[in-house]
């Protein structure tokens, strides 16, 4: 056997002792290089689709109207009275600001995992409240203070020429 690979002797192992390379082993790639620009790695909040939010709001209104219609039909109310009451409830819910979204309450509580647009809207509202509470500017860029600090440091350290007229040498700040 070469370089201590495999069995020292194939006796009693039930194999021939032949060593093969494992072709299904995936080696980790070099993570220092990224083909994508660093700007694409920044977190971007997913924007909710306004049409889907409006559709869900109208659907919730129709669910409440249908519940009222079902209840009135069980009580055996006249058909024209049912139409009048359901139309009045529909107009009331459409004109109100929350539009029958008592379940969502704007904070994301009570929302299900499949309601991604409602969750995204609640997350944006929460982030905006937090930004205002902490006094963070709207144009704030994460890590921007480090970039400004590096730029100031580069401007503050003058580069001097070497005595022989060679490459510039940075002065130490000690």
Task: Please give the structural blueprint.
Elements: H1 50-74, H2 79-95, H3 116-134, H4 144-156, E1 159-161, E2 168-170
Antiparallel strand pairs: 1-2
Helix pairs in contact: 1-2
Task: Identify the strand order in the major beta sheet.
Answer: 1-2
Structure summary, number of beta strands? 2
- Sheet with the most strands, sense and barrel status: 2 strands, antiparallel
Strand content: under 5%
Output mean pLDDT.
79
**Rg for CA atoms:** 34 Å
Which word captures the global form? flat
Low-confidence stretches: 99-104
* Helix-strand pattern: HHHHEE
Number of helices: 4
| Helix/strand structural class | mainly alpha
Main features:
mainly alpha, two-stranded antiparallel sheet, single chain, 174 residues
Description:
It is built from 4 helices and 2 strands; from the N terminus they run H-H-H-H-E-E. The chain is mainly alpha-helical. The chain has a two-stranded antiparallel ribbon. Strand 1 and strand 2 (168-170) form a beta hairpin. Residues 99-104 have low confidence and may be disordered.
